[in-house]
Amino acid sequence: MGQEKEKQGQGISKDHALKLLFNQPENFSAVFNSFFGEKDFVEADRLKDYDSASQFEVLKKGRLAVSGERHRDIIKVSEGKICCLLGIENQSSVDYTMPVRIFFYDALTYYEQVKREGFRSQQLLPVLSLVLYFGERPWTGPVDLLSMMPDRVKDHLLFQNYRMNLIDVRRMDENRIGELPSELAFFFKTLQTMLDGEKFSKFLAQDANAFSRLSVETRAALEAFFDGEEEVFMKGGRDMGDGLRAYREYIASLERNAGRREGRNEGRREGRDEGLLKASEYYQRKMREAGLSEEEIKKIADGLVKEKEALEQ
User: Fold this and answer.
1) How far apart are CA 121 and CA 118, in angstroms?
2) Percent of all residues in the chain with a pLDDT value above 90, rounded to a whole number
3) Hey, which residues does 79 pair with through a beta bridge?
4) pLDDT grade, residue 194 (50/70/90)?
5) Is 30 exposed, middle or buried (0-12, 13-18, 19+ CB in 10 A)?
């Protein structure tokens, strides 16, 4: 999540969990299409990965004075209706410098294009960035450059504005959420209700088995939020404490049901284990592609093994 230091829970950080989740083409395209209100503006099957690192150099009197590298959370090439570069930045707290940061990231992406050999015969790909804000409180920071400047500047035509695109996930309109893929909608609705015990319990009751059907990516993201915000729950009074308890009880009931199913399906275990091995290899590859370290991947894999062993006891 940009420059933020993420609190580590028992699994992976929110930052890496969200990168893994939104690196999935279906989720990546869905949030852009929702924000811009165009169903097929970004097509999932026409997205390609793009190098998230941008290098820059500052020269002083012909000599290198400063150099550095910045990494976007996720950036992809869209080859749909408009060929362009699309970036997602995940944010869990209000950053009052965010418009400048996004402006800088976009400028570096343009710079990366023009410094390539033979650019004169090419055209720039337009760059669009989208900030996904997951904070508990509403976004109160600026969303454009002019709002960061003195009032007398704002209406002056000489100064060009730059507006960043932002979705405040926990306050996203319910109708917009309903347009998202079912797993992503479940994730967003969970975040919107998780700090209120009564609302969260009612939401979970709508589909008692929803969590058990989630992909590894979505489940890892939810676990990261519940692990990372446990202190928030404990300090937030009865409602938040009830939300955490409802979640833990919900997961425990799923595990008990899974345990009973295991007893009935003992004869199928060998074939299932082979399938789990293949699935594990696939998701480990996906996690590496999303930038997770080997230590973090091992932590997730070990957690899944322990969960599987607990169900078999």
Assistant:
1) 6
2) 38
3) 83
4) confident
5) buried
Q: Can you give the pLDDT at residue 232?
A: 46
With a pLDDT cut of 70, the percent of the chain lying above it is 63
SS3 letters across the chain: CCCCCCCCCCCCCHHHHHHHHHCCHHHHHHHHHHHHCCCCCCCHHHEEECCCEEEEEEEECCEEEEEEEEECCEEEEEECCCEEEEEEEEECCCCCCHHHHHHHHHHHHHHHHHCCCCHHHCCCCCEEEEEEECCCCCCCCCCECHHHCCHHHHCCCCCCCCECEEEEHHHCCHHHHHCCCHHHHHHHHHHHHCCCHHHHHHHHHCCCCCHHHCCHHHHHHHHHHHHHCHHHHHHCHHHHHHHHHHHHHHHHHHHHHHHHHHHHCHHHHHHHHHHHHHHHHHHHHHHHHCCCCHHHHHHHHHHHHHHHHHHHC
**Most confident region among 101-105, 151-155, 266-270, 291-295 by mean pLDDT:** 101-105
Give the residue extent of every domain in the chain.
1-171
Backbone phi, psi, residue 214, to 5°: -70, 150
The structure's pTM equals 0.72
d(CA 86, CA 221): 22
The answer to whether 24 and 221 are in contact (CB under 8 A) is no
Q: What phi and psi, each to the nearest 5 degrees, are found at residue 70?
A: -125, 140
Q: Which one has a higher pLDDT value, 118 or 137?
A: 137
Q: What is the mean pLDDT of residues 184-193?
A: 94
What mean pLDDT, rounded, does the chain reach?
Answer: 77
pLDDT at 305: 59
Residue type at position 150: P
Q: Which two tokens stand for residue 305?
A: 């093994």
d(CA 297, CA 289): 11
- Contact between 52 and 15 (Cβ < 8 Å): no
